[in-house]
Amino acid sequence: MTRAGVLGSIITAGTVAMAAVPYAAQQPAATGPNVAQIEKVKDNLYMITGGGGNTAAYITANGVVLVDTKLANWGQAILDKVRTVSDKPITHIINTHTHGDHVGSNEFFDPKVEIVAQENTAANMAKMPAFADASKKHGLSDRTFKDKHTVLGGNDAIDLYYFGPAHTNGDAFVVFRNLRVMHAGDAFSGPNNPIMDTNNGGTGVGYPGTLAKAAAGIKGVDTVIPGHAAVTTWQAFVDYGEFMKSFVDSVSAAAKAGKTADQALAEFKPAEKFKDYNLTRAKANIETIYKEVGK
Ligand SMILES: [Zn+2]
Ligand SMILES: [Zn+2]
Q1: Å from CA of 72 to ligand 1 middle
Q2: What is the whole-number distance in angstroms between the Cα of residue 10 and the centre of ligand 2?
């Protein structure tokens, strides 16, 4: 090897090593504590981010109600952030759906905490290996509901709604009535093609219908916490329903016309107002819809 060649190799190796350092620095240390972030949504309602789905922390007269508990091993990080805004005990956990990035740290909290979920979600959770051990079972649901349930009352009232399958077959919409805020879970994870978890009863074909029922059936909300994105408006949630309808209509028409999944993907042209949507999961969604319609 020439001297220039050797030098070139050293520089190349050095560049790779330097590039690796900031990447590694972004990853949470395997043995270190998980650190979440907290932001105020409105008055006595906060959103805690990091470690999976968005957690809501609602400070009520007698305690703190959490919506979703992120991945496993994030319980202390959630509690640490709650303690920066309240010293009240955690009284309730509401789970929007069964996924491990939303129920993962249920078991961290005191067994006396009441865990509430839609009945299909409760059944899905009961099948999760994460809760199989006897020492973890207190992380399963204590109270379930079918279509509608209200947790607490008066100014603290939290209305839970279920309108049918979408992301899973147990997606709860959680409305902090007095604050006009809704936690949408992963039925509206953000401005993107969603995960359609058919293994947990989710659906592509039925997704827009469920969103339409939610948009029509829930009143008095102006602010929405998506499952995995920044706080947004009720109108953004309504628009999401429109996006999903246009997507599923387009794909269903392509399937009916005997087109391939790739053709269906090429033919879907989202409206201008959805130009910033992340369509990474469009192909996977199309495959799910094609399976559902028997193509
Ligand atoms: Zn999620
Ligand atoms: Zn999910």
Answers
A1: 13
A2: 45
Q: How far is the CA of 182 from the centre of ligand 2 (A)?
A: 16
Work out the angle at residue 209's Cα, subtended by the Cα atoms of residues 208 and 214, and round it to the nearest 5 degrees.
95
Using alpha carbons, select from 132, 60, 142, 136 the residue that is nearest to residue 95.
142
Residue 24 lies in a domain: no
pLDDT in tens, 257-292: 999 999 999 999 999 999 999 999 999 999 999 999
Residue 13 lies in a domain: no
Q: Is residue 128 part of a domain?
A: yes
Which CATH number does the domain housing residue 53 bear? 3.60.15.10
Closest residue by Cα to residue 108 from 121, 125, 120, 90:
90
161-193, pLDDT tens digit by residue? 999 999 999 999 999 999 999 999 999 999 999
